[in-house]
Amino acid sequence: MRRRLLAFAVLAGAILAGCSTAPKGLAALDREMAQEDALPSYVAEGVNLDAGSSRLLVEHLGVRYFAANGPDEGSQCIAVVPEDATAWVVGCGGTLSSKAIVTVSARDGSETKLVNDRVDADRPEYQGLTRIHENVLISTLSHS
Q: What is the spatial distance between Cα 71 and Cα 73, in angstroms, rounded to a whole number?
């Protein structure tokens, strides 16, 4: 009987340890906030997210990509903010997936994916996307 209890305890520990490897969101949100991390006021006031948690992930070709905690526990958001302030977009999704958190589309048809840390961008579902930050993949389609 004692061996069964020990075996059960080891199995339960392994299951719980496996659960602890679930995605926990973006490590980038854990760093201290800097001045450049603040969302522009016109974005922060227009969406339901924790603007105080925003962090600038990357600036690429005149577009700033911010991450922030979402309105619900376990959700995170991406804000795609081009220099032209009229075409910004925000989307939020759950961090429980081991892959993409959320995908947003801009008016021009381009897509941006916010992905969890350590996502393999070479997977087939990310074909046609370019990694510009550990957590940001963008479509490489050209628009005229």
A: 7
Given the structure tokens 């048809």, which residue do they identify? 109
How is 33-85 classified by DSSP, letter by letter?
Answer: P-GGGSPPHHHHTTSSSEEEEEEEEEEETTEEEEEEE-SSTTEEEEEEEESST
Polymer length of the chain: 144
Closest CA to 66 of 105, 97, 40: 40
3-state secondary structure of 134: coil
3-state SS, residue 128: coil
Digit-coded pLDDT (tens) for 67-94: 999 998 889 999 999 988 778 999 999 9
Q: Are 40 and 81 in contact (CB under 8 A)?
A: yes
d(CA 88, CA 39): 11
**pTM score of the predicted model:** 0.80
DSSP 119: -
- Mark residue 6 as left, alpha or beta (left: phi above 0; alpha: psi -120 to 50; beta: remaining): alpha
**Residue 9 phi/psi, 5° resolution?**
-65, -40
